[in-house]
Amino acid sequence: MSAAKFDLTTRLRRLRYHSAVRDLVRETEINVNDLVYPVFIKHGKQLKDPVVSMPGQFQLSLDMLEEEIKEICGLGIKAVLVFGIPEHKDEHGLDTYTPNGIAQQAIKKIKTLAPELLVISDVCLCQYTEHGHCGVVHKQHNNIAIDNDSTLELLAKQAVSHAQAGADVVAPSGMIDGMVKTIRQALDNAGFKHLPILSYSVKYRSAMYGPFGAATEGAAKIGDRRTYQMDPSNSNEAYHEALLDIEEGADMIIVKPAHTYLDIIYHIKSSFPHIPVAAYHVSGEYAMLKAAIQNGWLEEKRIVIEVLTSIKRAGADIIISYFAKDVAKWLQEGKQYF
Questions:
Q1: Segments forming the whole domain that contains residue 258
Q2: What does DSSP assign to residue 210?
Q3: pLDDT tens across 31-48, in order?
Q4: Which residue among 227, 282, 284, 299 is buried most deeply as judged by most CB within 10 Å?
């Protein structure tokens, strides 16, 4: 470019030369209020079992919850996502809706320890069933498939039992057709019209869930989940899934995974700007970063903040992340990482 054509009046670096200027014009920032921290609660006593594939994450018994919840609240995190790991599994996941199930006990315990902490309960069957699928299993064309309508009945019972235990939000995650409508009707009929539904509306059949299967002891024992979770190749389908859940009464929706599906987050938020969108930064995404960090290949604070910022920049209002506690600590330090 010749000197005559170079426009000296446009110098974008003027907004980058000073840290205070960069802070002033920064478009996207992570806030502790954006974060939800998942917790894994297991039957037993004095358990704090590390999840090997997810360094820093643990399966906790109920009697170990007090210390964990105290730390979470102390960091200013305002919401947790509860996953229960039952002592016994069966074909239909009975422990999902018994009043004294592990998730129900965990919800009650957390609300006793920290009434102000928002408790979101995962509503699904995978970790409660012998086969590890998200619903009642039957065979279809020689493939493992879900009996959709029989599963809906169980999800309705589970959601109501979680609400009765004190859950503030229920989050159906099985990608079962009609789950939001069924759960909404069940909650309303049981006197919980005020309770929001955070639906896993856009959940892909991703290879990123492996470590989570170990954390919840809920990996599929037979077949796989491609008959009900979304094909990673599809994006237009995500719009259709989200639209159906919103029409059925979802108050908030989830896109899962997160940083490997930023285009989907953007697509969904652009399509439904009035609906709060959560992104689940899943176990495999967490594990990949942790492995690179532990090997010294990536600088932890910078890369984690950068990835979560990209998720929010793509359109997520809420970020569910195993890094939530770490990020909350770093935010308290008051430093900038860009």
A1: 28-333
A2: H
A3: 999 999 999 999 889 999
A4: 282
